[in-house]
Amino acid sequence: LAALSLAVPGAWAQEAPQRIEITGSSIKRIDAETALPVQVLTRQDIQKSGATNVEQLMQTISAAASSGAVMSSASSGATTGSISSISLRGLSSLRTLVLLNGRRIAPYGVGFTGDSVSVDVGSIPLSAIERVEILKDGASAIYGSDAVAGVVNFILRRDYGGGELALDAGNTQAGGAHNRRASITAGFGDLGRDRYNILLSASLQKEGALFGRDRDFASVGYNVEANNDPTSGHTFPANILLLPDGNLGGNPSAPTCPAPFAIDTPFTAGSGFCAFDPSPLVTLLPATDRASLMASGRWALSAALEAFFEASYTKSKQRVVIQPVPLSFAFALPPNNPLVNTAPWNGNYPAEYGALAGTPHGLGSAVSTILLRPGTPFYPTAYVQSLLNPGDALPPLAVLYRSNETGNRDITDHSSAPRLVLGLRGQAVGWDWESAFLRSQSKVREQVHDGFPANSLILPILNSGRVNFFGPNTPDVAAELRATHFVGDAFTVESTLTSVSAKGSRDLMALGGGPAGLALGAELRREEYLFDPHPTIQTGDISGYGGNFLVTERSRRVDALFAELNLPLMKGLEANAAVRFDRYEGVGNSSTPKASLRWQPLPQVVLRAGVGRG
Questions:
Q1: DSSP 8-state symbol, 29
Q2: CB within 8 Å of 212: residues ≥ 6 apart
Q3: Cβ contact 1:155 at 8 Å
Q4: For 63-81, how does the pLDDT look when each residue is reduced to its tens digit (9 = 90+)?
């Protein structure tokens, strides 16, 4: 990766050392070391990483596992909406809490359909991040049940004075995945002198696509030495099976198997079948455009009272292009699909099969069956006769087809994420306290451009005998197949999180290692979720979407109380205990305790232990 950067920086506002809150604890302290293991990525670390977005940054964290995480490229063949999520310790993004300045973010709401929990970190602009704190231990007693695997807290820049313009341009040595980014940041006022500070930031980013064909290591999916064959039997020219038993078949073009939708591999050599390797056509990195606007401010209303706000709006679109859809009896039709009660999709031969009409064809019912009968123009008579004994009657064929005539699947996921925080913080009667209102939303819209035919439209054409599965079609038939496309918004998702929270911490009696600390807090939260698929998606009629998705609209209230006690028993020895009580509407109550210990016998040695439940 080659990159060129230009930055004209401003200056940071200078503040005296103050008590801060570390991820995983509600007690403010000057010492950033706690009994829980927290990894901190500074702004300098982020710049040195070479990452161009948050997804790439998280891939540099050893605790962030690929298992359970969802990359934006996973939308190649799955309904993820191009989400980028984080999985700590391989426990999945459902159990990894993502925070922005210590507060929640509305979940993305798409995931693997039904995932209304995971957060899209792609919506966080990299240029606005000051540091990232990764808590590698479970924190359910502090934050709730979705922090079982740990917490990733993105801290945005603040207390900035002056202006900064940053321009970045990068490209890869082998081409593809180029990156262009521009950001501008301006800060006004000094909190100590002017009693206020306002930070404004805007950024634009454009990332180019990268396909499997662009890299040698990804251009071929099968591996003979590892006996790994992820290729597909749905090809063009199509593979066929002779009915009724389906144990005999092949491909009329084998072993030539003309690319790009049919190849002969070491696994198919001598079998008479062809294979399709999707690897060259898979989107490794989607083409992405992102824009973000962010503002934050602090006002010193008095020596002991401060008002603050955070406001942000991010918008992105990611385009994914992958191989054409496969079509055959291997794919099920949902019960409410228009074709399930009609032959051959109901499991029987249709009327035009004469004596066979109404009898089972052996491929199963409610599936996307494609049959080719003898006597139709494109039945491969000579090839089938070569597979039969002399004098055998020509049988119907089951076709395993790669829909080349409908083209590559082409979608764009549009997402936006508005977020607002309003709050007060201060000191009173020995307590450091803070109260805030949070409103966060995530809106996603998946737009289909090409390559997703409607089963109820294309399957009757494919079963008509007028389609050539082994060579070029006439312009009229090609146009008829192209006209079966679904075009438009496949689904929209809106996830909303509204909360009011208050917490406070204070010092208690002095112990051998310093003052004991106590924190108390409460949170009232309402979560709303709407998944609204297109009516055609609800019937499972769009090939390539893997089934049917129905409208889901839910909301719930979550109430929480939490407490934490920190005991510096002696110099270098600290104990901590926390407990949280949550009440989830419609689910029930949950109490999550935790106790931890930190001992530093030498400056170079730290020992930690913890026990908790989530």
A1: B
A2: 218, 219, 221, 278, 279, 280, 281, 282, 284
A3: no
A4: 777 666 666 655 555 567 7
pLDDT in tens, 433-454: 999 999 999 999 999 999 999 9
Separation of first and last alpha carbons in the chain: 41
Q: Is 384 helix (H, G, I), strand (E, B) or coil?
A: helix
* 266, two tokens: 């070491």
N residues, the chain: 614
Output the DSSP codes for 402-455.
E-GGG--EEEEEEEEEEEEEEEEEEEETTEEEEEEEEEEEEEEEEEEEES-BBH
DSSP track, 522-557:
EEEEEEEEEEEE-HHHHTT-BTTS-S----EEEEEE
Residue pointed to by tokens 């002095």: 510
Q: How far is CA 100 from CA 132, 420, 486, in A?
A: 9, 11, 38
Which of 274, 464, 257 is closest to 370 using CA atoms? 464
Q: In the numeric block, which tokens belong to residue 236? A: 């063009």
Distance CA 207, CA 283 (A): 13
- The pLDDT > 90 percentage for the chain reads 68
Query: Contact, 191 vs 15, CB < 8 A?
Result: yes
Phi, psi of 323, rounded to the nearest 5 degrees: -65, 160
pTM over 0.85: yes
Three-state secondary-structure class, residue 164: strand
SS3 category, 120: coil
Sign of CA pseudo-dihedral 99, 101, 102, 103: negative
Q: Which of 392, 403, 338 is nearest to 370 (CA)?
A: 403
Cis (ω within 30 of 0) for the bond into 515?
no
Q: How far apart are CA 87 and CA 99, in angstroms?
A: 14
Residue 404 φ then ψ, to 5° = -65, -30
> Which helix H or strand E contains 494, and what residues bound it?
strand 488-511
Q: H/E/C letters for each residue in 196-259?
A: EEEEEEEEEEEECCEEHHHCHHHCCCCECCCCECCCECCECCCEEEECCCCCEEECCCCCCCCC
Which amino acid belongs to residue 1? Answer: L
Report the number of secondary-structure helices (H) and strands (E) in the chain: 7, 27
Other C-beta atoms lying within 10 Å of the C-beta of residue 8: 11
Within 8 A by CB and 6+ apart from 58, the residues are: 64, 69, 86, 121, 152
Q: What is the pLDDT of residues 222-248, one digit of tens each?
A: 999 999 999 999 999 999 999 998 889
